[in-house]
Amino acid sequence: MAIRVPLKNNSGDLQEMTTAEVNEVVDQIVYQYSLNPSVSLSVVGSSGTLAAIADTRLQAGAQSTSISAFPNEATTAEPSVVTVTYDKISEAKASLSPTADSGITFPVYYDGNNIRAMDLTDLKDTFLHPAIDLLASGSLTSQQAGTYHINTNTSVAGSTEVSGSNTAIFVDTRADTGAYTAGSIPETLDQPTTITNYYLHRLNGVDNAYNLPMSIDSSNNLKEYDEATFESLIQGWIRFTAASSTDGYSLSYNIGTTGAGNTRGSGIADTRLNGAGNYQTRFVNTDDYRAQEFPNGTPTTINTYFLRINKS
After folding, report:
1. 286 Cβ partners below 8 Å, 6+ apart?
2. Measured between alpha carbons, how far is 130 from 247 in angstroms, rounded to an integer?
3. Exposed/middle/buried for residue 148 (C-beta within 10 Å: 0-12, 13-18, 19+)
């Protein structure tokens, strides 16, 4: 590793940045990433690039009829499982070409008695990789700005709901037992009720104060970076690193019950009633006896899915 201590201008004097000041630059890099994430997630109608996840629920069995007596419970159809697949999250990675290192492109540091510009390895180790480590963590603060998480609310402080229209990426449903009555046999088989909606959010950035590093200009003079120039430089490189790093610092997302990386936000629960069927009968007339089994039981979690961010 080649972690360097950048130089700053302190009222006309060159001074090495403190660890806290370097961390402030790292936080600014995270903010710059949040302005235009290069690894982005979107909410789509179907066929998202992330793995599909399933909501399951019970539905009633088909009715049985007889002209002489109620059909025996053993002969009636059992409740069955309805499965609804959700694949509403797509990932995209930007193709980028950041500012090339001319030999004096990056911030300067003391190298013994000399002042040198960082090379790309120095820039990565000092600034870019620490920023990626923050972005890839399991926390949900402004230090992870531009990355994503799941929440059961449509509005989350410090975040933006991604679809723009409060479109759930998953809906956990169960059979609505109150909707089934013996007097309505044959009942509609599938009568669900919504238990929980889950939404995709992106964390918002915070434009923090920081000290601009020093650089070497084309005339080999030391100068403080122009703010716009420095922020454009670091934005280009953090976006490239997140999308295209070959050093183990590229970002990606996955969703499922297992997977690599840190979980982001709420677990996504698929719940279902666990009963074996509520046998009910209906007498219509002496030639019409009906029976049907309705969903019943206790709510049980079948699977819990997680959105994860991975650094690789």
Report:
1. none
2. 13
3. buried
